[in-house]
Amino acid sequence: MDLFPTEKPRIAKKHGFRALKLVDVNLDQEFERRPLNVDYGTLNNGLTYYVHSNPRPRLRAALALAVNVGSVLEEENERGVAHIVEHLAFSATKRYTNHDIVKFLESIGAEFGACQNAVTSADDTVYELLVPIDKPELLSQAISVLAEFSSEIRILKDDLEKERGAVMEEYREIRNASGRMQDEHWTLMMEGSKYAERLPIGLEKVIQTVSSETVKQFYKKWYHIRNMAMIAVGDFPDTQSVVELIRTHFENKISAPGPPIIPLFSVPSHEEPRFSCFVGSKADGSAVMISYKMPVDELKTVKDYRDMLVESMFLHALNQRFFKISRGKDSPYFSCSAASDALVRPLKAYIMSSACKEKGTLQALESMLLEVARVRLHGFSEREVSFVRALLMSEIESAYLERDQMQSTSLRDEYIQHFIHNEPVIGIEYEAQLQKSILPYISASEVSKYAEKLQTSCSCVLKTIEPEASATIDDLKNVVSKINNLEKEGSIIPWDEEYIPKELVNVKPAPGYIVEQKKYSNIGATELNLSNGMQVCYKCTDFFDDQVLFTGFSYGGLSELPESEYFSCSMGSTIAGEIGVFGHKPSVLMEMLAGKRVEVGTKLGAYMRTFSGDCSPSDLETALQLIYQLFITNVIPGEEEVKIVMEMAEEAVRAQERDPYTAFANRVKEINYGNYYFFRPIRTSDLMKVDPVKACEYFNSCFKDPSTFTVVIAGNIDPSIAVPLILQYLGGIPKSPEAIFNYNRDDLKGLPFKFPTTIV
């Protein structure tokens, strides 16, 4: 076996996707129930297992025990017991006592939280481990731990008493404003079903008083081996030996004869919308959430998969509109998005949520409902759907190209979903073929029809969240009635599309040239000194087939500024970002980059100014064009953009002032560094001092002189293609007549702070 993959030219791999054969789309074709490319089966005692060999990360294994048991199975006197069982698992079992499991896992480098964890939901409980397997016995020991969880968790009175405190602490942590709001919303969403009263955290009274005998009865009744699956994905030399380990540790686990039937609990639908106005002085800010509930879709056939793609295109297109509205004049919200979410086993929901300014919830609600109604009346344009189609095609292309670099934890999660929700595992190769064959033939009218599912008469729940009450339930009802009437009258005008330029760079710059070139063979890197003074260092790597990372930095930052200029200049990146630092408005740039996988961001730090990002190797030219645009664009603040930014900043500051955790963190920072302007939290009074013109002028000067910047590029690049592009766009950045921010690293001014001299 070769230790390293054979090196292949990146362009050949790209053509590999483009030459990927289309498949005959038979909508009635059913997917295989058996998951693809995994050693899958059932032990004699009924345990299901999945074993897959995957080398990423090296010498690691991602393990899981999935149990089809959740809080919805609890009786009234057991509310919270499913979660308590999960806690007790790590406390003591037949072979391990006094948290020895946690100690063992931490001793081999599997820290609690990051590498060992468990989650209890309404329908299931999943125990997860990520363990090193560089020693043969470690995998066996880790599997034995999960085998203990399946039937031998120790539930004695002393064990339970020790664990009550930890469970109560978790209960208290989620009883903040956000937690209480989520609980209320869950109850409203699930009203009329058992799910409404079975939040996994349970009741305080049960947590504090439930007996060990009650917990044990729940565990023995529902934790049946036939309701479980053992999943192992890792850097295994072969899968059969891992199957034998599972057999060794699990086959002697015998549950009571006849597993209990897991009942299905329905959630009733309702024609009349439900309303909620949550008011909490500690709420993060004002927000609106609209949920449209419906039965979970089955994914059994190619038609089901096609419907899922149409749904995804609808949500992407709707989010594109929401983003443009959020950046428009007199925007009703700061941000808004729509998503599909599986809530419980029988139920999913389309959820639209927005964050808005104080006392702006009614305006936000009206805008959200209006946009969905607009889609129902006029639909999405072909241009909007083409943008989404290109986006989804780019995503599946990237996944296909990096199919050999998939992480074990991602594969493990796929198999968990297969066991718990019967989601088919068809393999990325076939999925890429399907999407490539289906996406071009999904029409704008098909995508638009999905708006019919988002009606307030279709099991809809509407909620506002406010720190101080301003909206009432009657107000929400009036908004719903208003939009319904406008839609019936046909009074909603079509969507107004803005002009989108075809090219990022209107006139390509004259390429620069290489003044000096150095090769560092010991690390495989090459350094280029360009004619405009910029230094570029690149290194070809094969970690990921579809990734190029880059960063550019220059010394000199906010520490050099006097206090009088600090607050304005520190807002430079935020204000300029809303206007457009790459020569185009963000909403326009989003469409211009449709189908491309490229991101570039900027940061103004204390000691450096940086830009960084990543892209697909085939989109390297686009990434370098964006960097070129960053240096030649002169950002000028507009009244509307500045208004949006300052309103968002003011709302964020108010939310922080309401949050007790932030207040505590700010106090610690104040004690550690003194109350100096750079370290203390921004106040609303500081925002009043911000000069938008000064902020943009500072930002422009930060990315103006290429001679002070060093750029590092690493990834799957072909130098014969990359170097000419580097010379064209980085070498083509005009050199400044005089140096700007020309600082030596050792001469930078330190930040002003003072350590505490006494105990506070």
Taken from the alpha-carbon principal axes, the silhouette is globular
> How many individual β-strands?
18
Strand order within the widest beta sheet: 12-13-14-18-15-17-16
* Structural class by secondary-structure content: alpha+beta
User: Separation of termini?
Assistant: 62 Å
What's the Cα radius of gyration?
Answer: 29 Å
Mean pLDDT across all amino acids? 92
Describe the largest sheet: 7 strands, mixed
Low-pLDDT stretches: 1-15
- Percent helix, as a range, is 40-55%
Number of helices: 25
Beta-strand fraction estimate: 15-25%
InterPro entries: Metalloenz_LuxS/M16 (IPR011249), Pept_M16_N (IPR011765), Pept_M16_Zn_BS (IPR001431), Peptidase_M16 (IPR050626), Peptidase_M16_C (IPR007863)
Pfam family, one: Peptidase_M16
Domain Peptidase M16 N-terminal: 57-177
Domain Peptidase M16 C-terminal: 210-390
